[in-house]
Protein backbone atom coordinates (compact mmCIF):
# COMPACT_ATOMS: atom_id res chain seq x y z
CA UNK A 1 0.00 0.00 0.00
CA UNK A 2 1.34 3.42 -1.01
CA UNK A 3 1.97 6.00 1.67
CA UNK A 4 0.14 9.32 1.66
CA UNK A 5 3.37 11.06 0.63
CA UNK A 6 3.75 8.77 -2.41
CA UNK A 7 0.12 9.45 -3.37
CA UNK A 8 0.74 13.20 -3.08
CA UNK A 9 3.86 12.97 -5.26
CA UNK A 10 1.95 10.90 -7.84
CA UNK A 11 -0.79 13.55 -7.94
CA UNK A 12 1.78 16.36 -8.24
CA UNK A 13 3.51 14.59 -11.16
CA UNK A 14 0.10 14.31 -12.84
CA UNK A 15 -0.37 18.06 -12.36
CA UNK A 16 3.17 18.66 -13.74
CA UNK A 17 4.31 20.12 -10.41
CA UNK A 18 7.75 19.62 -8.86
CA UNK A 19 8.13 16.78 -6.37
CA UNK A 20 10.51 15.89 -3.54
CA UNK A 21 13.22 18.43 -2.76
CA UNK A 22 12.59 20.20 -6.09
CA UNK A 23 9.69 21.87 -4.25
CA UNK A 24 12.13 23.96 -2.24
CA UNK A 25 14.57 24.93 -5.01
CA UNK A 26 12.19 27.24 -6.88
CA UNK A 27 9.08 28.30 -4.96
CA UNK A 28 7.73 30.31 -7.94
CA UNK A 29 5.78 27.21 -9.05
CA UNK A 30 3.36 27.85 -6.17
CA UNK A 31 2.58 31.36 -7.41
CA UNK A 32 2.16 30.15 -11.00
CA UNK A 33 -0.09 27.28 -9.92
CA UNK A 34 -2.29 29.53 -7.75
CA UNK A 35 -2.44 32.18 -10.49
CA UNK A 36 -3.64 29.53 -12.96
CA UNK A 37 -6.25 28.14 -10.58
CA UNK A 38 -7.58 31.61 -9.71
CA UNK A 39 -7.70 32.59 -13.38
CA UNK A 40 -9.78 29.50 -14.18
CA UNK A 41 -12.13 29.89 -11.22
CA UNK A 42 -12.52 33.69 -11.23
CA UNK A 43 -11.54 35.20 -14.60
CA UNK A 44 -12.00 38.81 -13.38
CA UNK A 45 -9.56 38.26 -10.51
CA UNK A 46 -7.17 36.42 -12.82
CA UNK A 47 -7.07 39.45 -15.13
CA UNK A 48 -6.20 41.68 -12.17
CA UNK A 49 -3.19 39.43 -11.46
CA UNK A 50 -1.79 40.17 -14.92
CA UNK A 51 -1.51 38.17 -18.10
CA UNK A 52 2.01 36.92 -17.56
CA UNK A 53 3.05 38.11 -21.06
CA UNK A 54 6.07 40.01 -19.76
CA UNK A 55 9.47 38.34 -20.00
CA UNK A 56 11.33 39.04 -16.74
CA UNK A 57 15.04 38.29 -16.50
CA UNK A 58 17.67 39.23 -13.96
CA UNK A 59 21.41 39.53 -13.77
CA UNK A 60 23.51 40.08 -10.69
CA UNK A 61 22.81 43.84 -10.88
CA UNK A 62 19.61 44.38 -12.92
CA UNK A 63 16.04 43.21 -13.43
CA UNK A 64 14.92 43.54 -17.06
CA UNK A 65 11.32 43.34 -18.21
CA UNK A 66 10.46 42.96 -21.90
CA UNK A 67 6.79 43.54 -22.67
CA UNK A 68 5.33 43.06 -26.18
CA UNK A 69 3.51 46.17 -27.40
CA UNK A 70 1.16 46.34 -30.39
CA UNK A 71 2.61 48.12 -33.40
CA UNK A 72 -0.27 50.62 -33.31
CA UNK A 73 0.20 51.54 -29.65
CA UNK A 74 0.41 55.24 -28.87
CA UNK A 75 3.71 55.90 -27.08
CA UNK A 76 2.30 59.05 -25.50
CA UNK A 77 -0.36 56.95 -23.74
CA UNK A 78 2.08 54.40 -22.28
CA UNK A 79 3.16 54.95 -18.69
CA UNK A 80 5.52 52.82 -16.59
CA UNK A 81 5.23 52.93 -12.80
CA UNK A 82 7.87 51.13 -10.74
CA UNK A 83 7.73 50.24 -7.06
CA UNK A 84 10.42 48.32 -5.15
CA UNK A 85 8.63 45.00 -5.67
CA UNK A 86 6.46 45.46 -8.79
CA UNK A 87 6.00 47.38 -11.99
CA UNK A 88 2.81 48.52 -13.73
CA UNK A 89 2.35 49.47 -17.37
CA UNK A 90 -0.62 51.78 -18.01
CA UNK A 91 -2.07 52.99 -21.31
CA UNK A 92 -2.16 49.65 -23.10
CA UNK A 93 -4.73 49.19 -25.89
CA UNK A 94 -8.30 49.11 -24.59
CA UNK A 95 -7.33 51.22 -21.57
CA UNK A 96 -5.80 48.16 -19.90
CA UNK A 97 -2.83 47.97 -17.57
CA UNK A 98 -0.41 45.19 -16.69
CA UNK A 99 1.22 44.55 -13.32
CA UNK A 100 4.47 42.58 -13.17
CA UNK A 101 5.80 41.18 -9.89
CA UNK A 102 9.56 41.65 -9.73
CA UNK A 103 11.82 38.79 -8.59
CA UNK A 104 14.05 41.07 -6.52
CA UNK A 105 13.70 44.44 -4.78
CA UNK A 106 14.80 47.26 -7.08
CA UNK A 107 15.68 50.97 -7.07
CA UNK A 108 12.59 52.48 -8.79
CA UNK A 109 14.04 55.99 -9.22
CA UNK A 110 16.85 54.59 -11.41
CA UNK A 111 14.61 52.65 -13.83
CA UNK A 112 14.96 53.24 -17.58
CA UNK A 113 12.44 52.33 -20.28
CA UNK A 114 12.83 52.23 -24.07
CA UNK A 115 10.48 51.21 -26.87
CA UNK A 116 12.44 49.04 -29.27
CA UNK A 117 10.46 47.70 -32.23
CA UNK A 118 7.35 46.07 -30.76
CA UNK A 119 8.89 45.64 -27.30
CA UNK A 120 8.86 47.88 -24.27
CA UNK A 121 12.12 47.20 -22.41
CA UNK A 122 12.43 48.32 -18.79
CA UNK A 123 15.80 47.94 -17.04
CA UNK A 124 15.90 48.50 -13.27
CA UNK A 125 18.92 48.20 -10.97
CA UNK A 126 18.52 45.81 -8.07
CA UNK A 127 18.53 47.21 -4.58
CA UNK A 128 21.77 46.16 -2.87
CA UNK A 129 21.45 43.88 0.10
CA UNK A 130 21.99 45.62 3.39
CA UNK A 131 25.07 44.39 5.15
CA UNK A 132 24.46 46.33 8.32
CA UNK A 133 24.79 44.34 11.53
CA UNK A 134 23.25 45.40 14.82
CA UNK A 135 24.65 44.44 18.20
CA UNK A 136 21.70 43.46 20.39
CA UNK A 137 21.97 43.77 24.17
CA UNK A 138 20.77 40.75 26.14
CA UNK A 139 18.93 41.58 29.35
CA UNK A 140 18.13 39.20 32.19
CA UNK A 141 14.68 38.82 33.69
CA UNK A 142 13.88 37.54 37.14
UniProtKB/TrEMBL annotation:
Check the record and name the InterPro entries matching this protein: HSP20-like_chaperone
Superkingdom of source: Bacteria
Which CDD domains does this UniProt record tie to the protein? ACD_sHsps_p23-like
Its name, as the record gives it, is Hsp20/alpha crystallin family protein
Amino acid sequence: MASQWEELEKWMRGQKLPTGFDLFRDPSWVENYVRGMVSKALPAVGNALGTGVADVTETSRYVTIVYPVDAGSDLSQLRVLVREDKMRIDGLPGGKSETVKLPHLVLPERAAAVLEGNSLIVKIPKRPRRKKVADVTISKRG
